């Protein structure tokens, strides 16, 4: 009898998506309704590890924004990491530096375990008052350029 309850394919949604992609024209099977025009934004955990350290829970992963744009010229796709200050520091160090809701990095000093909690900007994305905001319930929003999906450092 297997110790693993679910198929290993069940874990695929919880693997890091490290690659940032730009597709100028996405192949479409069938037809896109001509009335369908606009951009669909989605956000979720994209990076679920640094070096050999993995987050204990997928919700701790760094945010990644995905967008699909429907126009008369076709369907276009782009994704980008939300470049929070914490993301950039961890990227440079190539290890986890901050506590998150479900993860405490191995090398984090004992006294810091209860203080700084990382804002992964991975929970929701809203377009409000001509601004695209990447959100997380426990922290401030991050301002995103809706065209190229770059994070403004505030």
Automatic annotation (TrEMBL):
Taxonomy, superkingdom: Bacteria
InterPro entries the record matches: Carotenoid_Oase
GO biological process terms, semicolon-separated: carotene catabolic process
Cofactor: Fe(2+)
Nucleus found in the keyword field: no
Pfam families (UniProt xref): RPE65
Molecular function in Gene Ontology: carotenoid dioxygenase activity; metal ion binding
Keyword terms of this UniProt record: Dioxygenase, Iron, Metal-binding, Oxidoreductase
Family: Belongs to the carotenoid oxygenase family.
Protein's UniProt name: Lignostilbene-alpha,beta-dioxygenase-like enzyme
Species assigned in the record: Photorhabdus khanii NC19
């Amino acid at each position: 009898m297997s110790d693993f309850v679910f198929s290993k394919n069940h874990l695929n949604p919880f693997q890091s998506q490290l690659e940032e992609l730009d597709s100028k024209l996405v192949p479409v099977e069938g037809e896109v309704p001509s009335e369908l025009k606009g951009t669909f934004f989605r956000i979720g955990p994209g990076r679920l590890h640094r070096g050999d350290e993995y987050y204990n829970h997928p919700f701790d992963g760094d945010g990644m924004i995905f967008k699909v744009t429907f126009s008369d010229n076709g369907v276009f796709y782009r994704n980008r990491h939300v470049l929070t200050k914490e993301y950039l520091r961890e990227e440079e160090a190539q290890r986890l530096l901050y506590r998150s809701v479900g993860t405490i990095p191995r090398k984090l000093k004992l006294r810091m375990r209860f203080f700084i909690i990382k804002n992964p900007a991975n929970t929701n994305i809203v377009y409000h008052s001509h601004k695209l905001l990447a959100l997380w319930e426990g922290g401030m929003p991050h301002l995103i350029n809706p065209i190229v999906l770059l994070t403004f450092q505030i």
